[in-house]
Write a structure and sequence with these properties.
Elements: H1 11-18, H2 26-31, H3 39-44, H4 51-54, E1 65-68, E2 76-79, E3 82-83, H5 85-89, H6 94-97, E4 101-106, E5 112-116, H7 117-133, E6 142-144, H8 151-162, E7 166-168, H9 175-184, E8 189-193, E9 196-198, E10 201-203, H10 206-215, E11 221-225, E12 242-243, H11 244-250, E13 261-262, E14 266-272, E15 280-285, H12 287-299, E16 308-311, H13 318-330, E17 334-338, H14 349-357, E18 361-364, H15 366-375, E19 389-393, H16 399-409, E20 415-419, E21 453-456, E22 470-475, E23 485-486, H17 490-497, E24 514-522, E25 528-533, E26 537-540, E27 543-546, H18 547-555, E28 560-570, E29 574-583, H19 591-604, E30 613-616, H20 630-637, H21 653-662
Parallel strand pairs: 4-17, 6-7, 6-8, 7-14, 8-11, 11-12, 16-17, 16-18, 18-19, 19-20, 29-30
Antiparallel strand pairs: 1-2, 3-13, 4-5, 9-10, 14-15, 15-23, 21-22, 22-24, 24-25, 26-27, 28-29
Helix pairs in contact: 7-8, 7-11, 9-10, 12-13, 15-16
Bound molecules: 5'-O-[(S)-ethoxy(hydroxy)phosphoryl]adenosine (WTA).
Amino acid sequence: MSEQDQPDDATIEARLHEQDYFRPPTEFVGQANVTDPSIHDEVGDFPEGFEQYAELLDWDEHWDEVLDASDPPFYEWFVGGELNASHNCVDRHLDERKNQTALLWEGEGGEQRNISYQDLYRRVNETAAALRQAGVEEDDVVTVHLPMVPALPITMLACARLGAPHSVVFAGFSAEALAERVDAADSDFIVTIDGYYRRGDFLPHIEKADEANGSADRDPETLVWTRHDDVHDDVGVSDDYTMMADLLAENRRETVEPVSRDAEDPLFLMYTSGTTGKPKGCQHRTGGYLSYVTATSKYVLDIEPEDTYWCAADIGWITGHSYIVYGPLSLGTTSVMYEGTPDHPHKSRMWEIAERYDVDIFHTSPTAVRMFMKWGKEHVEGYDFDFRHMTTVGEPIQPEAWLWYYKHIGDESAVIVDTWWQTETGGHLITNLPALEDMKPGSAGKACPGISPALVDDEGDEIEPASGKAGNLIIERPWPGMLQTVYGNDERFIEEYWEDFSDVDSGDWHDWSYKAGDGAVQGQDGYWRVLGRLDDVMNVAGHRLGTMELESAVAEVEDVAEAAVAAREDAQKGEVPDVYVVVRDGVEESDAVSQRIVTAVEDEIGKFARPANVMFVDDLPKTRSGKIMRRILENISNGDELGDTTTLRDPSVPEKIRDQIHGD
Ligand code: WTA
């Protein structure tokens, strides 16, 4: 860490050395949703223990069997059960809390919208009716490319009401990335918006749908929300598109009966980066997923209906799906949504919102915590808010950042849970139950109830539990929140997640283990520390990116002969992409080429994936069979020892690259 990243309070360091564990405040424990350690045994009574999760929901048809594991890894949860997610997140709360706020939305410029459960019911019904009129039928995949505006969760819940799986594409993704996901999901609908605000500017978001429509193989029907009552002056909307406002006007006060979905019917797809150039459509089931996120919202996030809960993530990623929309609304709480960035128009924006709405539970990423820490505690001081519970998710949190968060944001009176999970896992798998387990800065905590993490070496041999040795993190038993498959590609599902550490010929689920792709260590105290990805996936400011995806974007540039992407450690963002490029013969290594490479990444993926450095080299380190050794490039980027270079075709290449880059 550089000077300026150091905690502004020198006692923090000292404190960490003195104290490994922090007890949850007594006041917290006194009111927590879970205070009895027997929950681990109850839920761990596999698989029946998970029934208590499903019992948190309303079912149209009770399940016959908790788990059908007869065809691993295609597990089925709550077999025979039927339910609707929109009913569970909206309708079932009307009797008790129709006037309570469901969504508290704040625009970047300070506009406020307070949507009660009754309003949400109306709007979700009318939106479902509008989508139905536009031709959406049960099982149609609807691609949703919306920013953080109420239309996003409303569209998701309307899709769920119709039984049409949504595939939300993060608004920051480019037109190309959108088109790729429309085609991959066989989707005939895009739902978008004219634009939204970022740092005071109105972004003409619809342009991405325009371009995607031009480049996708499919010809999706495009439905357009508007950020204000009318289309923004700076934006043109194609005559081929349908305005949501028109459809909604025709469907005013219309209601749509929630479709009873089989527990195993998909609720949504979420595309995420894997180890190949193409993103994978993680397919999540209705019954198991909703049970799992509802239960973990209650037990881990400690949400109660009367709370004001704010998860400052984007709904376009899994965290927002599970822990802004489905989990919190299923529990009937008030969920805060903010459109903008944390530093616009000033660096106290988050705390202003926390104070304004009296937020009880706050959820963010380590990248955000490091940023708040860098800005300094003076931007927090003077704001009157009092969190009872705080969360981090998405990357490991350094003990220094943890303690800063604990002290300056939590005022030493809030619990913190560090939650480890993935797009694929649906919900938290490793984290503390906050009233039961002491907090340990830098550690994600213990396994969630009913979850069985373990470590294996690269050969698949089990590493002794709690040995302090690092290994590949696997999950030995299935759980209700897990992905069903990779959309349309069962083989890839098996290849990516199972075949390395399972006996793929076995029909007995005991022989199958889910591979997380992360390295981890379990200490003697049973606490887990997740070390980061072991595969070609990087974590940039909590956003997951595949190095192969970046490389295929760079390869689009004509001047490039060959390219490889390596993850450079970054004090602020965790990791950032470095691009190593060999140009074609006759091409001059120039700023113009660098710029074309950066633009290609922005166009193919999105601005959030922009390379940190583009470095021209004469050659890339390759094995004798021609495989690029990214690990060596990573060591060069990070200024580490090169490591073993004997397997390289030309062992002198790394040194040459180092000389070229560092000029010594
Ligand atoms: C990383 C985000 C350390 C990990 C919910 C994982 C974490 C990837 C943590 C999934 C944590 C997530 N500590 N690392 N608490 N949480 N990760 O799919 O490498 O966007 O595999 O899901 O983020 O990222 P994804």
